[in-house]
């Protein structure tokens, strides 16, 4: 197991230089405006993830309005939730070009537009486009920047900050469910969606709060990260370290060439602009447009270059084997968390536990303890003596054990205990951005986390239908939990073993070099 970014071996820097410099810590790192970023991310989780958790209210209204099958109607909410996560890699491109703030503001407008247009839906297929795709893409454009910005502003308290911000999902599930129920009863579902679209415009405000770190703050942050890594000072894994160090040189040369070319273009435009002061205002207006277009072209080229190199270039994230194992884990993880929400009501009915469940629903137990789990696991992970990676793995092993045990419980008390453990251990979702940043560094966080949530989106989109298909074949809910739990276990074991194998290979290589 590894405990620092050097153990994982993807981030890089000249530690010899970094150690000789003493930089004054910036007040906005782990404090100051950083807590406004947490507030912004918290509100984003309420408005995006909370709203999606409350779509069951609208699903009932759509069934009554359009008289379509449950399976077809359910695809509306599934598309919205799945696309929010699946578009992650492409949102990384927007962040590379425009930054988190502009991406989030555009996403807030798009999400609100999706809600408002859905109020005029004439059939379910119309909702596929307006709500599933339009609102889903808008949600993804806000969600990823909200996570990335917290990672940029926090170093010592990253896990706690991510835990606090992601608790908005749980609070949003309660608030948005109550709000949508009230709006549907008082105004009808169409007006409710229109009002919700107006509320979603607050996402633009959340995006405006995502103030980017200045160049000075970014330098201080990098120095802080270097000093923190020197405390652990573990030996880097050979494959990842060699790859990234070489990539760092290539990226630096490429950026210098691009900056030189960009400066030549802008200088040329400015020269034409200054030489044409005596020309007419119409020509000056044209030169201003040309300058803006040139600046936009430079920004797009630079952003696309960073995005492309992260996925397909020499500095591809896929050269990091641990990160690839993390992606494989993500393909199985999310469905194992969603499936209990889908099948628990039927299991309760099968065991004649409806009376107890109506008093205190098992799904509510999961949701409430899930909020506590995110905060507590975040606090534990930020302790100096505890590795975030180890906490992440232990929570995963606990969750998969609960998934496999749940079908064996036939009493309400037994199910309630297992559901509480599921809720608490699934709090590791708040650690996912932290682990991702440890794997690839802050610079690659947007693109890397985009891939991870894309894998989660695929899992969320295909997991429930797969579980339903298993039930249709076996006529038992037990096998849905067992098969999904075993697939989840394979992903965890693969993720657990990969760093150990790489560290062993690194030791063998260093031994061979020492003998030579």
From TrEMBL:
Q: Which UniProt keywords apply?
A: Membrane, Transmembrane, Transmembrane helix
- Give the UniProt subcellular location, in the record's own words: Membrane
InterPro entries, A to Z: MFS, MFS_dom, MFS_trans_sf, Proton-linked_MCT
Which Pfam families does the entry link to?
A: MFS_1
The topology of this chain with respect to the membrane is: Multi-pass membrane protein
- Please report the stretch or stretches of sequence annotated as the Major facilitator superfamily (MFS) profile domain: 37-503
What is the protein's major site of localization?
membrane
Q: Where are the transmembrane segments?
A: 33-55, 75-96, 103-121, 127-148, 160-180, 192-210, 322-342, 362-384, 391-409, 415-436, 448-467, 479-497
Give Gene Ontology CC terms.
membrane
Q: Give the residue ranges for region: Disordered.
A: 1-25
Annotated GO molecular function terms are:
monocarboxylic acid transmembrane transporter activity
- The name under which this protein is listed is MOT14 protein
Q: Which organism is it from?
A: Nothocercus nigrocapillus
Query: What is the name of the gene encoding this protein?
Result: Slc16a14
């Amino acid at each position: 197991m590894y405990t620092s970014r050097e153990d994982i071996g993807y981030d890089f820097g000249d530690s010899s230089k970094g150690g000789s410099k003493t930089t004054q810590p910036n007040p906005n790192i782990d404090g100051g405006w950083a807590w406004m970023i947490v507030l912004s991310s918290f509100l984003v989780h309420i408005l995006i993830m909370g709203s999606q958790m409350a779509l069951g209210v609208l699903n009932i209204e759509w069934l009554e309005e359009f008289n379509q099958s449950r399976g077809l109607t359910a695809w509306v909410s599934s598309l919205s939730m799945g696309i929010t996560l699946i578009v992650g890699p492409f949102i990384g491109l927007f962040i590379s070009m425009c930054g988190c703030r502009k991406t989030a503001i555009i996403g807030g407008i798009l999400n609100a537009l999706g809600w408002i247009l859905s109020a005029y839906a004439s059939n379910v297929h119309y909702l596929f486009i307006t709500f599933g795709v339009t609102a889903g893409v808008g949600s993804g454009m806000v969600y990823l920047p909200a996570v990335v910005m917290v990672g940029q502003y926090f170093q010592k308290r990253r896990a706690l900050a991510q835990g606090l911000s992601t608790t908005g999902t749980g609070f949003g599930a309660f608030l948005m469910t109550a709000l949508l129920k009230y709006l549907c009863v008082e105004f009808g579902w169409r007006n409710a969606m229109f009002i919700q679209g107006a509320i979603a415009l607050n996402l633009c405000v959340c995006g405006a709060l995502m103030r980017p770190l200045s160049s000075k703050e970014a330098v201080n942050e990098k120095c802080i990260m270097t000093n923190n890594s020197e405390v652990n000072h573990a030996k880097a894994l050979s494959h990842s370290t060699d790859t990234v160090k070489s990539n760092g040189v290539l990226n630096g040369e490429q950026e210098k060439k691009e900056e030189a070319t960009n400066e030549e273009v802008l200088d040329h435009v400015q020269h034409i602009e200054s030489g044409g002061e005596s020309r007419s205002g119409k020509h000056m207006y044209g030169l201003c447009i040309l300058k803006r277009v040139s600046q936009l072209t430079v920004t797009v080229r630079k952003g696309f270059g960073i995005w492309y190199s992260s996925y397909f270039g020499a500095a591809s994230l896929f050269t990091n084997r641990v990160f690839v194992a993390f992606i494989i884990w993500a393909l199985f993880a999310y469905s194992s968390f969603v499936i209990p929400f889908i099948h628990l009501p039927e299991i309760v009915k099968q065991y004649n536990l409806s009376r107890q469940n109506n008093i205190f629903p098992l799904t509510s137990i999961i949701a409430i303890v899930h909020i506590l789990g995110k905060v507590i696991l975040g606090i534990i992970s930020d302790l100096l003596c505890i590795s975030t990676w180890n906490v992440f793995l232990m929570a995963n092993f606990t969750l998969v054990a609960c998934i496999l045990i749940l079908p064996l419980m036939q009493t309400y008390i037994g199910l309630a205990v297992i559901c509480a453990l599921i809720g608490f251990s699934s709090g590791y979702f708040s650690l996912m951005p932290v682990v991702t940043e440890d794997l690839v560094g802050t610079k690659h966080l947007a693109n890397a986390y985009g891939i991870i949530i894309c894998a989660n989106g695929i899992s969320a989109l295909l997991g429930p239908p797969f579980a339903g298909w298993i039930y249709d074949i076996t006529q038992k809910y037990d096998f849905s939990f067992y098969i999904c739990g075993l697939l989840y276990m394979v992903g965890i074991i693969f993720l657990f073993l990969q760093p150990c194998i790489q560290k062993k290979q690194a030791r063998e290589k260093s031994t061979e070099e020492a003998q030579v």
